[in-house]
Amino acid sequence: MEREMVDSTSPERVRNNVMRHEYKVLNEKEKRQMQRVKDDGLAMWDFLDTLGGSREVALAKTNLEQSVMWAVKHITG
Q1: Count of CB atoms within 10 A of residue 4's CB?
Q2: Among candidates 30, 3, 28, 27, which has minimal Cα distance to 17?
Q3: Disulfide-capable partner of 26 in 30, 37, 66, 75 (CB 3.0 to 4.6 Å)?
């Protein structure tokens, strides 16, 4: 099933998540925090791409994804 893309700071984000059944409405500060976590995560991801490919870089990317996920979960939880 293909999912429609929805901005992660939008209240419409609930349409894309099958696991979480209740959502906290984010205030402006929380929206900014979530956007920064994701922007900074992407900047780090892009930097890691410049290092070349290795098992270590792959592990760094995996752990970066986890870091962003847990930070967002904290903000939206």
Answers
A1: 7
A2: 3
A3: 30
